[in-house]
Amino acid sequence: MDLYSIILVDDEEEVRKSIIKKIEWQAAGFRMVGDAENGEDAMEKIEMLEPDVVLTDIRMPYMDGLALAEKVRQRYPSIKVVIFSGYDDFEYAQKAIKLNVTEYILKPVNVEELTSILKRIKNNLDREIEEKRNLSRLREKYRNSLPIIREQFFNDLVHKNLNKELVEQKLKEYDIPVLGARKWVIAAIDVEKEEVGEPLSLHSEEELIPISVMQIVREKLEGYSRFSLFQSASEADMVVIAALDEDNSITGLIAVLGDICKETKRILKVPVTIGIGHSCEELSGIKRAYRSSVDALGYKAIAGTGSTIYINDMEPVGAGKLEFDSVTEGELISSIKFGTKEKIEASVKGIVDKMKTAKVHHRQQQVYRLGVLNSIIQMMQQYDLAIEDIMGGEPEYTEVFDKLKKIEEFGQWLLKIAGKMNQKINQERDMTTRQVIQEARQYIMDHYQNPDLSVEMICRHLHMSPAYFSTMFKKETGQAYIAYLTDLRLNKAVELLNKTDDKTYIIAAKVGYQEQNYFSYVFKKKFGVSPTRFRGAR
């Protein structure tokens, strides 16, 4: 294990030096990364250094050890806190226990005792990390939760636009046997509970009925095709994803599913209705195929319950179809918003390839282009992009189509427009971040006199999370928030020292310090002299 980092906090410099010198830190499993004179100073160092352990005195000016322990517990709950004190006071010990302090020891600090405590903390940290890294335990937990993870993945697969690479990766990872098929068919299964016939003992426990149905579905399908069966989160009781290879067909699958309807009625006395959707030849089309299987179930009022309903029987398929579906639209939008130049090119190529291979009337080609263009316009509105900046003052939609009758021309035009939008959106995103940080700086300037000014207060004003704000603030200003605020307050204090005859405690209050002594301490730390001497030098 690597050495753990530790910070020492005590207002007496000699005590700090003595403890640092006497303890063999490496032998105890630690490295001393910093020390501080008080709690305020310590919080700044904790933010910068992110130690594993804070070793602090209990009695200090500005912010005592208990107040420090409370702040550490709130902001950095994983950091261990050890408190030492010259006061054998039960009340302090009680407070320390409530604050979940790791150890509480008395001064003067005994080298052997502190070393023993540090080794104990090291062992505890080792155990905690080992627990989190323990591969066999993690594997066991993963195996135990795999059915739940699979169910979640299946529901995401049929409801969300997942990219092909992620779907293939998860199917392999979860050992789901449907990869590499000629085509896929989705069947949505509904158990018609309200139509239960003559009662069986099984019917008294309704939650067992779907399990019995699933058992029959598995037994029947295992001899016909590769498949996966899962319980649906909505719209159907369960869903089958069937992989069709060269040796099986949709007609054969419908026959097997029809047999399942008969078997459940005969054995379980429960009617089951199965909606069968359009087949798909790409994994990215599973969401659409699922939607059509649910649509098939919707025809129960016409076709009746207790049998299979094939969507093609209800909605006859035409000679050809070209549709700007949600998957294709999602890929285009994602590439424009977040993608690289290569990803945009791939997305546009996919759209153009569909147009080239579809054997449809030119009017359907026009409707497809209109769908693409409409999606582009909606994105411009969402990001408040000026159409003339992107399209260069292009005329009405119909005129665009007249100019771009050839598919290759439309593809080149779309690639150019998508590239411009990607560039503008990235510029807007960077500008928005800069504007937000500028607003934060203005808010700090307006409220630096408030001693309670904090990151949380600023983030409430900006409607941002503290973690993201802290990262972006440092990236934009080059300083952590606390360092920036301290510099601002001290520079304002210098102005007041130079331009007014106000006493030091008044100036401290004016720049946001409740404690005059702490103000003097911070001022001297930055400028090398106290405020009084600074004014005298002037």
Structure overview:
- The chain has 538 residues and is an alpha/beta fold.
- It is 61% helix and 11% strand.
- The protein has 25 helices and ten strands.
- Strands 2-1-3-4-5 form a five-stranded parallel beta sheet, sandwiched between helices.
- Helix 9 packs across helix 10, helix 14 packs across helix 19 and helix 15 packs antiparallel against helix 19.
- The mean pLDDT is 85.
Mean pLDDT metric: 85
What would you report as the Rg, rounded to the nearest angstrom? 34 Å
- Poorly predicted parts: none
How many runs of DSSP E, i.e. beta strands? 10
Considering DSSP H and I runs of 4 or more, what fraction of the residues is helical?
A: 55-70%
Q: Helix segment count?
A: 25
Termini separation (Å)? 54 Å
What's the story with the biggest beta sheet?
5 strands, parallel
**Helix- and strand-based class?**
alpha/beta
Q: Strands of the largest sheet, in order across it?
A: 2-1-3-4-5
Coarse morphology: flat
Task: Determine the strand fraction and express it as a percent band.
Answer: 5-15%
